[in-house]
Design goal:
Distance between the termini: 19 Å
Pfam family, one: Glyco_transf_4
Strand content: 15-25%
Helix content: 25-40%
InterPro entries: Glyco_trans_4-like_N (IPR028098)
Largest sheet: 7 strands, parallel
Oligomer: single chain
Structural class: alpha/beta
Organism: Methylobacterium goesingense
Protein name: Glycosyltransferase involved in cell wall biosynthesis
Radius of gyration: 20 Å
CATH topology of the largest domain: Rossmann fold
Strand order of the largest sheet: 3-2-1-4-5-6-7
């Protein structure tokens, strides 16, 4: 198939990943190409050059409009809208069999655009006002919508999901997150260092449990970092930097337990299954899709309960490492995910032809 992938534009789709949406788009593009599809990635122009990139904007907008995401900035909105409008026009005229829309833009959801090319839209966020109405009005022939978990589905459609919506769990390549039979006795955390990711709770729980902890990931919120994270570093708490690829997999896989600390309704939690693939059990906060994703591979604590999270660390350490690894192989592999994507592409194309 000839497939257009439309990405979020805040960061480049390139290593080291700024977050789960960038990782999702990169792995999707690479995986579909490996399965013989022709893929064009519509993303920020400074994304990974190994892909055929059609730039939606010249560079990711965190570079040209730093710190303005979620601030309602009119200049950023106009910049992004103009980029997506042009990209949607090129996709419509580009002879694509299907569009996989991974953006947070309303523009690919407009009826006239959905009529131009069969579309699969993957929702990566909980519902919010600027997008909700467009999503609900977009359930037309030739359009399929996916969410990453049952928990996310219930947020978007508490009254029951429409027939053209499905749950599509994310997946990882086990070869990229290799299994290790033993850990080093310490804890690890990875993700965007920002309040909604709960980095401060991971530090507090590790201290309470008497465990060493290494943090990995980009510093998304410098004020949060300066006020709540940097002062806590030293001794058993360290920052290991923003790693990518094999270096990050090696670092995560060496740990004995992974801390997953969302302070929002996390739709999935890609970092959790990356750790689980390595055989690392998870101690986490029970929000969003955490219970659905982690299952028997970890232990969960209520939100904002540091002593309970510390207890969960101790309980998770007792879980055999084969358990999280087996859960990923059963439910969350890249091949399983890609096969489901391909099936959705075929469904969207067939429905559009009727």
């Amino acid at each position: 198939m000839r497939i257009a992938l439309l990405a979020h534009l805040r960061h480049p789709v390139a290593h080291p990943f700024a977050g789960g949406m960038e990782a999702h788009a990169w792995v999707l593009a690479e995986g579909l190409m490996a399965r013989g599809h022709e893929v064009v990635l519509f993303a920020a122009g400074d994304s990974d050059p190994r892909f055929a990139i059609d730039p939606v904007i010249p560079v990711h907008h965190e570079r040209s409009f730093p710190g303005l995401e979620h601030r309602g900035d009119a200049g950023l909105k106009a910049h992004v809208d103009a980029g997506y409008a042009g990209a949607c026009d090129r996709i419509a005229a580009g002879g694509f069999d299907v569009l996989h829309n991974n953006s947070l833009s309303r523009l690919p959801l407009e009826p006239r655009r959905l009529a131009a090319v069969p579309t699969v839209t993957s929702l990566h966020v909980p519902p919010y006002a600027a997008l909700c109405g467009f999503v609900r009005d977009s359930l037309v022939p030739g359009h399929r919508i996916t969410v990453t978990s049952e928990a996310q589905r219930r947020l978007w459609w508490p009254e029951g999901a429409p027939p053209r919506m499905s749950v599509l769990h994310n997946g990882v390549d086990p070869d990229s997150w290799p299994y290790r039979a033993r850990g080093d006795g310490g804890a690890v955390w990875s993700g965007r260092i920002a309040p909604i990711k709960g980095t401060h709770l991971a530090i507090a729980a590790a201290r309470h449990a008497g465990l060493s902890l290494t943090l990995f990931g980009p510093i998304e919120d410098p004020e949060y970092w300066a006020a709540r994270i940097a002062p806590q570093l030293g001794g058993p708490i360290r920052y290991g930097g923003h790693l990518s690829g094999k270096a990050l997999a090696d670092a995560v896989g060496r740990a004995s337990v992974f801390l997953f600390t969302p302070c929002w309704d996390e739709p999935f939690g890609l970092v959790a299954i990356e750790a689980m693939a390595c055989g690392v059990p998870v101690a986490g906060i029970d929000r969003g899709a955490a219970a659905e994703v982690i299952g028997e591979a970890g232990c969960l604590a209520p939100p904002n309960d540091v002593p309970a999270l510390a207890d969960a660390l101790g309980e998770a350490l007792a879980i055999p490492r084969a358990v999280p690894h087996a859960r990923v192989l059963r439910l969350f592999t890249r091949d399983r995910w890609l096969a489901r994507c391909e099936a959705l592409y075929v469904q969207a194309a067939r429905t559009a032809e009727r």
